[in-house]
Amino acid sequence: MRSIAVMNQKGGVGKTTSSVNLAAALAREGKRVCLMDLDPQGHASLHLGVEAGPDMPSVYNVFTQQTTLDHARQLIADNLSLVPSNIDLAATEIELAGVQGREFFLRTAMKHWKEHNRFDYVIMDCPPSLGVLTVNALTAASEVLIPLQPHFFALQGLSKLFETAALVTRRLNRELRVSGIMLCLYESGTRLAADVVEDLKQFLRASDGDTPWAKAQIFKTKIRRNIKLAEAPSFGQSVLDYAPGSSGAADYVALSQEVVAMEVAAPATPAAPTTARAA
Q: How many domains, the chain?
């Protein structure tokens, strides 16, 4: 089972759009996929037409140990499940403050899935912050995918993401690797986009081989600006259902094929994590 955290502390870069549509595209490929909404805004859930009310089991109930992931999970389409979120999840940061081992709640909840290979892919849509929810995702994940808008300031924010991944790798999850960077809201006709991509390639080439991002690849598929991607959430559908003939749908199908094809190198000497706090 590949567990993938989709993260970026900056909002508006295509994180939720990529989480939802990548999950939908992988499911179309015949993979067993679960999308886990870890953002208190619940946008990934709404994108798929699910509004998690107070009586609906959600990922918040999993963190507070009121239910299991399987009980909170909903089947959305063939091969595609969702663990929804709502605003209650925002209380997690406060409720888990001071709780020992709070970074491992999600990994413990997912243990049964991993042991029984319940899914081929678990895609975790992280909130646009580096708090306890994101740290839980990174502790439970084996891979990180970073959506990046090709702007100058996005490169500056990337260094913070890499620092967080390195911290979690050292203290909590030695198996974690940044496996890929996907360029979203891409405009191929601009010089800026090409320059940012080249700077990113140079940075990755110069990276130390022991860093969690040393083997990260920049996906060949670029997610182009497409109005259908912006319209799909209001209809509670992935872009593959809402506009299957659009460039947005084609891009995410191509991206999913790259994700399936990629090989993520495992660490040579995995070690047991400590319970040191990372957030």
A: 1
CATH number assigned to the domain comprising residue 35: 3.40.50.300
Residue 239 in domain = yes
Strand extents, DSSP E, 62-172: 74-77, 80-83, 121-125, 143-148
The C-alpha atoms of residue 239 and residue 104 are separated, in whole angstroms, by: 33
Strand ranges for 112-265 from DSSP E? 121-125, 143-148, 177-183, 217-218
Enclosing domain of residue 248:
2-261
Starting at the earlier edge strand, list the strands of the sheet with 80-83.
74-77, 80-83, 33-37, 121-125, 2-6, 143-148, 177-183, 217-218
Per-residue pLDDT of 25-55, as tens digits, reads: 999 999 999 999 999 999 999 999 999 888 8
Is residue 14 in some structural domain? yes
C-alpha distances in angstroms, 10 versus 34, 149, 154, 249, 258?
A: 24, 10, 8, 24, 24
Please tell me the pTM assigned to this model.
0.90
* Residue among 178, 150, 149, 147 at smallest CA distance from 164: 178
Q: For 189-211, what is each residue's pLDDT tens digit?
A: 778 888 888 888 888 887 767 88
What pairs with residue 36 in β-bridges?
83, 124
Residue 266 lies in a domain: no
